[in-house]
Amino acid sequence: MGRRRRLWPTYLLAGGYALLLLLPFLTLLSASLRPEADLYAPGLLPPRPSLEAYQEALTRFPLGRFLLNSLLVSSLITLGVLTTSLLAAYALARLRFLGREALFGLAVALLLVPGEVTFLPLYLLVDRLGWLDSYLALTVPFLANPLGVFLLRQFLRTIPEDYFDAARIDGANHWQMLRHVALPLSAPALGALAALTFIGAWNMYLWPLVVTKSREMQTAQIAVNFILNEEVARWNVVAAAAILVLLPSLLAFLLAQRAFVRGIAMGGLKG
Amino acid sequence: MDATLSRAQRLRKHLRGQGEALVFLLPAYALFLLFLVLPLLEALWLSLHQEDLFGRGRVWTGLANYQKALSRPEFWKSAWLTLKFALITAPLELLLGFLAALLVYRPYPGVALFRTLFFLTTAIPTAVAAVAWGWFLHPVGGLANRLLASLGLPPQPWLTSPELALPTLAVITAWAGVGFTAVLLTAGLQNIPAEILEAAEVDGAGPWTRFWRITLPLLSPTLFLVGLLVVLKSLTAFGQIHLLTRGGPAESSMVWIYRVYQDAFFNFRVPLAAAEALLLFLVLLLMAALQFRLLGRRVHYG
């Protein structure tokens, strides 16, 4: 009983703090639900809630296309990173070959190279390849990342040898062991890496900003910038567009919160 | 078993093993080589060359671009702004995230809801966070100035004055990162053995004493590490600045990474921008090296 009574301060503090943190976001939501005439009306709640701004945003801008672009790009990158990372991590963790430690060392060293430093020469490279303003530019350079290789290699090394021995006795080769032992057993790590990669790709800003030119190739993030410039006087439309861009990532977060949290903890503290 | 194989057979087996490994490694490492190592080397190459005035390609200039970058007052201004930005963002983000972590690291009925609310910001895209704040700070419709007005304070030109723009952007960046630090610090707090805290409680230590004498010291390696990560992140913050101020007003939020972008894509001074990018890389590398050293120590003795 006493313990239960002592919970109320926690609820009050946590609730109040959450409200305070989400306040800018709530005012954005409120703006998106206001018709233009009420945009500057005081109060947190819209006096006459309407979906007018959403309608306007969806008809004036190809938001569906922007969101689809982001979804396509993020999904391809996630799939690519999972595949390339698992393959490389398997070799680094399970196979014996010349230069293994050196190659793992290279992955660790590349962890230190932030994309923001290489975006300029990467842009020149992508330009030479003739990939500017295409899905190739948005996806191919990111289909592998050192963090994925690093995390999965560390994870695969924690799988007890016995599992692989059992498969080997049954005559499994490395491909079969990867498929039937390593893959199912690393599901939690893969899920976390997938969540981390997806959100990272979905939130990319600098890169799509410099490599996309045409409207059709823009991702949702860049579209937000574009809509903000176009509709600087109609903030309800800007807000509605932003909320529409937010929804998929919010949904992904709510569906896979555990994986997200694990991914951040793994990626942040590097195993 | 190997003893029964001939030397040639053993060699073939060895080579097959190498070949198999190569197939597994090729996709990831080919991409690394092409899209990470090569660009890095090209940045280095570019930074050591100069566009020839007569269009005959690039000519070697040694460290001239670095000299030029380092002798520009704009560069030092950007470096200073970046430092200022990081010095506001990092402690604030750490503090805000720590408060959230303290509220949710222990299980209690309903904790899942609060965890979701606090961790949610990790899923809010930079562009959306920037727009949310753009509206929150809007001179006419924004809640921030309204709240100030209700307290009888004058409205503030949050993003439009050279004095306020950078600190405001730093606050926005810290806000957008609360989820990130909250997740990491929650994990850190949960890793503190409960027995130690219980033992202290039995010995009569109050919650305040326990926090300052046990929780905080035991968490300090994590705090330091997360702090470093946050600094690293803030040194390359770009999206929110691009969306909200374009580096202005009067270049007051032209941080280092934005200067690189500006010089490369608007001033078309690619070699200079490459040199600036590599100088930033050097700073990030030093920070990361520090992080790895500490991480190593933690792994060995932790």
Give a summary of the structure in a few sentences:
With 271 residues, chain A is mostly helical.
Structural account:
The complex is a heterodimer of chains A (271) and B (302). Chain A has helices at residues 2-5, 7-32, 52-60, 63-94, 100-110, 115-128, 135-139, 146-156, 161-169, 174-185, 187-202, 206-211, 220-230, 235-255, 257-269. Chain A is an all-alpha fold. Chain A has 2 domains: 2-55, no CATH class; 56-269, MetI-like fold (Orthogonal Bundle), CATH 1.10.3720.10. The longest helix of chain A has 32 residues, at 63-94. Chain B is mainly alpha-helical and 302 residues long. Chain B has 2 domains: 2-36; 72-301, Orthogonal Bundle (MetI-like fold). Chain B has helices at 7-47, 64-71, 73-104, 111-119, 126-136, 143-150, 165-176, 178-190, 194-202, 207-235, 239-244, 256-265, 270-301, and strands at residues 49-51, 58-60. Chain B has a two-stranded antiparallel ribbon with strand order 1-2. In chain B, helix 12 (256-265) runs antiparallel to helix 13. The longest helix of chain B is centred in the N-terminal third of the chain and has 41 residues, at 7-47. The mean pLDDT of chain B is 86. The chains are: A mainly alpha (271), B mainly alpha (302). The interface between A and B is large, with 92 and 91 residues.
Q: What does the largest sheet of chain B look like?
A: 2 strands, antiparallel
The shape of chain B is: flat
Spans of at least 5 consecutive residues with low confidence of chain A: none
Radius of gyration computed on alpha carbons of chain A: 23 Å
| Mean pLDDT across residues of chain A | 88
CATH class of the largest domain in chain B: Mainly Alpha
The number of E-state strands of chain A comes to 0
**Gap between N and C termini of chain A, in Å?**
40 Å
User: Which CATH class of the largest domain in chain A applies here?
Assistant: Mainly Alpha
Uncertain stretches of 5 or more adjacent residues of chain B: none
Strands of chain B, total number: 2
Termini separation of chain B: 42 Å
Specify the helix fraction band of chain A. over 70%
Could you give the order of strands across the largest sheet of chain B? 1-2
Q: Would you identify the CATH architecture of the largest domain in chain A?
A: Orthogonal Bundle
Query: What is the CATH homology-level superfamily of the largest domain in chain B?
Result: MetI-like
The helix-and-strand class of chain B reads mainly alpha
